[in-house]
Amino acid sequence: MTAGDRAATRFEREALYRSALAGRRVLVLADGASSAAQVRPLLPGTAGSAVVVTSRARLPDLDGARFIRLGGLDPADSVRLLGRISGRGEGVAPAEADAARSIASACGYLPLALRIAGARLADAPELTMADLASLLVDERRRLGELEVGDVSMRTRLGTVAKAVSGQARRALALLAAADQREISGPAIAALLDDNGALNVAPELADAGLLHRVSGNGHSSVGIYSMPPLVRAYAAELLADVGPGPVGSATGPLLVSGWLESGGHASAQPASHGAALPTSALPGGALPGPAADCRLITSRAGDRMATSRNQARP
Asked: Which of 28, 150, 230, 309 is the most exposed place for a label (fewest CB within 10 A)?
């Protein structure tokens, strides 16, 4: 295509693209699509052609597509990829192995984040894996460290977050304030103080901003967790927009959502991994309507406790 072939409008560019592909069997790669509308003009009309689309969103309105959900790499593959991209070899030296595993974990085992980390190491030979691992420990500065050139995890996550509804972005910020490892769909609606917001959790999951821990398809009653880098982005979002009036009531609202989901949401303290079932509530039963129930998370001690105060007659 020459400079004279360049079309001025989107429709002219689409027509030029289709004429260039006419009669050819081609494989098109559409990387980082945010919507089906972006992909449709790229679909070739020749039989036998194919399109591979990568996206953090599900794109359910892309007709005829076969969807394959990809998770992060496993820890060992993550370390090998980091070593290869950094130029330090797939077999990371034993002295750097712990630091490499720490970097991979901080990157959430995501290929893009690992590529950025590896590129930073390749660009600065004096930067050791231990140096970079120490820079990534602080979640508040993690996204700032995962930038190289014009490639940035903050920008990538921001693009995805802007594609969801304003209510979903608000929920994302409030989840950073709630600091829950796992949370149910109704509890997320309770954070928004809107029982009609049960579609928010599936929306965030479809965008790749939450992971479904349990529950099928678009079930709003499932249990969700937030990936580490999304949590770091959500904390920045919270700092920008503030918790608002709901933030001060986060504890009671979370319990409200927990109870509305039938007590199926579990709180997972990392120290021993035991879930907090309904039977763990004081008294062994759900509190009555006159009870004031609070679910308190202590991040410093990594403890989960419940307290229940009976209302005075």
From this structure: 150
| Contact present, 177 and 242 (Cβ < 8 Å) | no
**End-to-end Cα distance, the chain:** 82
Using alpha carbons, select from 247, 171, 260 the residue that is nearest to residue 210: 171
Chain centre distance of CA 127:
28
Hey, what amino acid is at 284? G
For the chain, state the CA radius of gyration: 23
Question: What are the boundaries of each domain within the chain?
Answer: 3-53, 75-149, 165-309
H or E segment to which residue 27 belongs? strand 27-30
Whether the predicted model's global pTM rises above the 0.70 cut: no
As given in the structure block, the two tokens for residue 161 are: 């977050």
Per-residue pLDDT averaged across 87-95, rounded?
A: 74
Cα–Cα dist 296/277, whole Å = 15
174 CB-contact burial (10 Å; exposed 0-12 / middle 13-18 / buried 19+) = buried
The strand pair at 183-184 and 223-225 is best described as antiparallel
The answer to whether the CB of 296 falls within 8 A of the CB of 305 is yes
pLDDT tens figures, 9-42: 888 888 888 888 888 999 999 988 878 888 998 8
